[in-house]
Amino acid sequence: MNKAIIGFSKLSKEEKINWIASTYFTNPEEAIFTIKKYWNEDSELQKLHDEFIENTISNFYLPMGIAPNFLINGNYYSIPMVIEESSVVAAAAKSAKYWSTRGGFKATVLSSEKIGQVHFIFKGNVSKLEDFFQKVKPKFFSNTDSITKNMQKRGGGILDIELRNKTKELENYFQLHVTFETKDSMGANFINSCLEQLAKTLKEEAQKMESFTEEEKNLEVVMSILSNYLPNCIVRAEVSCKVDDLAEKKIEYPQEFAQKFVQAVSIAEIEPFRAVTHNKGIMNGVDSVVLATGNDFRAVEAGVHAYASRNGSYSSLSHAKIENGVFTFWMEIPLALGTVGGLTSLHPLVKMALEILGKPSAHELMQVVAVTGLAQNFAALRSLTTTGIQEGHMKMHLNNILNQHQATPEERIVIVKHFDKNTVSHSSVVELIENLRK
Fold first, then answer.
1. Distance, CA of 273 to CA of 267 (rounded, Å)
2. Banded model confidence at residue 122, pLDDT cuts 50, 70, 90
3. Residue 184 gets which letter from DSSP?
4. Diameter over CA atoms, the chain
5. Are 326 and 240 spatial neighbours (Cβ–Cβ below 8 Å)?
6. Residue pair 257/385 in contact by the 8 Å Cβ criterion
7. Which 8-state DSSP code applies to residue 121?
8. Which residues are annotated as catalytic?
9. Confidence bin at 341 (pLDDT 50/70/90)
10. How confident is the model at residue 393, as a pLDDT?
């Protein structure tokens, strides 16, 4: 069957669904039923969802949970988390409760500088280009005034514009490297609008430059785009307490636990194979709050992993030490987040998530997100260095296995009781279900 189609975007929603169902499914009616089952009954709400992206046919739901008891900078937060992975929310909540009695989390925004670039090709005399840049730099600012006016009122705008010579890396390649402050907005549209105006000014002013040859006047702008790598938009999150205060039911010997914990972090600092999984655990926490608050988790992921590689080798984002009898665990990560614009004023659950967080500023949200990532990392490392990761994870996963095999309420009681004292694995759960049904 030919599965190509021309003009799919021009079809109505109903026509799109009918084409998908008849083209890809042996039972089109069942496929249509499943697609429509996840529509919102509220037609206005569904229309809102339909218009978030193109070619919408349905909604794809992820669970939204709450991790309470996060003590951050002296204030308690209940943190909304959107994620499908078992045990993530439970682990975050457990870490929050643990540290709430040990001084809580401290978080600080170290800097909030965003970056955008105009990439262009210039074939000519570099000294002449440098002189040209200094001459037209004031015009770059004045020509973007209409775009930056409102942002400037909020204390943001364009911070600086640099000319960067990248010809050693790529022939004839230069950049306008631009730094921004976007306050409570993530600022992607604002930054890109500024960059496109800067590119226009660059081309127009080059044409007027009398000292340029014709080739120099016709410099080529390749593209103008923000960067998701933000090494100067950094938030720090940390916890610390006396080593002896680490003691709890599963940490009978706190000194031994602290040393093993620090060793585990040290391994992630020097071993990329471990660091990737280590940092993935951090991002379980980070991404879930980024998603819940309507921010761009793909941009955050890309920027964070680039930052983890900034010294030439992929390494742990978090660090730990024992000094003068005090255990300290901390992390610094780049986060570009917004609490205004985008989905923050459109998606009802995003608005609710921000309300639960106390309508935070962008800086406050950065702190909350970083803390959630650190809490997640602490929970994972505590499990790894004590009972092992699978004990808690598989017990949380047990419910998914029971749902998958449509266990009855009576079967669930027997199975859950059995695995209170036995190791959970997919095969052992299935075997018990089958035995019960014989």
1. 10
2. very high
3. T
4. 91
5. yes
6. yes
7. E
8. 85, 280, 296, 393
9. confident
10. 54
